[in-house]
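Retro notes, structure queue

What went well: the backlog is down to a handful. What didn't: a couple of records were mislabeled last round, so from now on we paste the full input next to the output in the thread. Example, using Phage terminase small subunit from Erwinia typographi:
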Amino acid sequence: MLTAQKRKFALALMSGMSKKDAAIKAGYSGKSARSKGSQLAKDPEVIAFIERKKNEVIEVDDAPACRGNVNTPAENVYTPAVNTGEGSSETERYYDDPIEYLKAVMNGKEPDDPGRRDSAKAMLPYMHPKKGEGGKKDAKQAAAQAVASKFTGMAPPQLVVSNGR
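Corresponding output:
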């Protein structure tokens, strides 16, 4: 009987993974994955499943049967707005803040360029630290200062010596 783990192993093996990696992806222990991968590769059920999948013919319809509305590139063409800055003939806007760019992509004002989006996400921690970001020492120091400000004593009186005058 072909179990779910064996099926996952076979699919991972078909995708080009090594036997060990396919066994790990299927959910087997990393310690025994090497031997289990070798065992499963020789299993007649797994071999039969892989052969069935290789001989399977995939039919693709041009139009989906269940819905008529399909997002195709010809229908959803993005036309970027022209930057209105002085002397600018560029079609894309330039942002100094990565959050502004990500908001523009989210709201559909900018095209979703994966390279620019990933760059903006990588820049976020350098320009906008997370709230509460800081170590234990910083938190301890802040708590100590808050407590110390409550219990500070009065300043000692200034002594003025007249030296007999």
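Agreed that this is the format going forward. Reviewer comment attached to the example: Residues 4-55 form a domain with the Arc Repressor Mutant, subunit A fold (CATH 1.10.10.1400).
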